Amino acid sequence: MGGSGSADLGGNVAIVTGGARGIGRDIVLRLAAAGCRVAINCNASVSEAAELADRLAAGGSEAIVLPGSIADPATAPMLAERTLERFGRIDILVNNAGITRDTTMRRMTDEQFGEVVETNLIGTHRVTKAVLEPMCERGHGRIVSISSFVGQLGNYGQANYAATKGGLIAWTKTLAYEVARNGVTVNCVCPGFIDTDMLRGVPEHVLERLLARIPLGRFGDPDEIARGVVYLVRDGGYITGTCLNINGGLYM
Fold first, then answer.
1. What letter does residue 222 receive in the DSSP assignment?
2. Distance of CA 2 to CAs 5, 6, 29, 86, 222, Å?
3. Is there a contact between 48 and 21 (Cβ–Cβ < 8 Å)?
4. Active site amino acids
5. Which tens digit of pLDDT belongs to each residue from 1-12?
6. Fewest CB within 10 A of the end CB: N or C in the chain?
């Protein structure tokens, strides 16, 4: 994680779904550096989440690990209940968890389409709904969902993923209208191609083609997405229903 952050969200409590690896991990680190106590949700990456929580504890930050797939209807209420039991409040939700099942539409099965919708869109909806009541009752909340440039521009072989990420943008705008009067802001961040394990698994010749599409001529760093999230939750009190594009100019 670049930079040390500052403890300017002290006392706030954040839930980060998919917080053990990649972009989610950097979001957890940035929020903790800013003073948040963090509930780290993960699915398969339980050991990585535990290591991350230990790292935060060693640095004086408080964190808990809450395993569970957001595609499971039982996970959303568990996340809210366990976070409230431990910390007594929920100020911030970062909807980062998501999956891909990439293939062309001509080959895509209903199952491949449905799995991505169930996690990326319906799972995100469930988790958000579970934390809305506590936020609205307190008259304050920050919800940030990680969408993607794919939901704005489209991308070959990702019709299911694009549908969910585009859906998140429309969902964000609608929810922002509904809860603004309760002091809750709802925004999304749309990353471009980010240097994560997923991208590093792409063949070199494909990476070269992807890089050629980016006006700034490089892939993004996960910490750049994390800093965008912190900006929205810390400084974005007058920002709601919008998308923060962090994509190197890939989509303008």
1. H
2. 9, 12, 10, 29, 10
3. yes
4. 161
5. 444 445 699 999
6. C
